[in-house]
Input
Amino acid sequence: MAKERRSLNGKLVAITGGARGIGKATAEALAGRGARVAIGDVDLTTAEATAAELGGDSIALALDVSDRGSFEYFLDEAERRLGTVDVLINNAGIMPVTPFVEEPEDSFRRQIEINLVGVINGTQLALKRMLPRNSGHIVNIASQAGKAGLPGIATYSATKHAVVGLSEAVRAEIRGREIEVSCVMPTIVNTELIDGVVDSPFLKRVEATDVAEAIATALEVPRFDVYVPRSNGALIRSANLMPRVAAEWVGRTLGTDKLMTQVDPGARAAYEDRAAHSGGDHGSAEEAAPAAEGRATH
Output
């Protein structure tokens, strides 16, 4: 029996890293369905501009996802101003591109703080609100890089594998409750995260709006695995059934082993600089800036 489509009208959706990219596109898609949207982002000025564009019951709040106190304030303030948070979308993330052996410590620590600790913070804090009332939906933006490691973004891939595993484990822990968990795994998304990445004839980019529509659909008709494009889910599952040697050969044939190693450093310079200075004193935060989004290979 087909699942009944749920209305998003009047629902309060909190989105991290919502000022740009996937986060902004998702805010627009959900506001268009009648949702009230709270945008959290390190770049408050841009977040406020995005909220103003959305109009209606949309607000912007400063948020450093790696700082638990900042995240708790974000959710508290969203609820104070707009009501109960029905949906949390953990979207904020950064993606530096560099050979792993050359990656500085502050870079991999910042990614872990933003891409993983930020998701842990948000998921825990949201569940503490959702479990007592036995309702809600948590959406974690991972990446198809969370299903296979990609050269050039080893730490990023590691954080996205962790987000997938975290989402699976949390889903199992709350099984039987009326709380949904979705894990969104996009391919390469046409946002600032992939500045300087060379096009591949075998790997088609998707737009932030494609990811946003997939998220909206998963909220209306809940499901856990959200691949963008959806067809890639079958490809990834098939690859997982192959012997490793065969799967790696397919990857090389498709050029995935070169995707993040043959980039244009000049074209990425602005993004890389923002990502490197996106956090607070403890590394935190990220995200936002450009990336509010989700990501790239994602």
Observations:
- Residues 105-133 form the longest helix (29 residues).
- The first strand starts at residue 12 and ends at 16.
- Residues 12-291 form a domain with the Rossmann fold fold (CATH 3.40.50.720).
- The chain has one domain: 12-291.
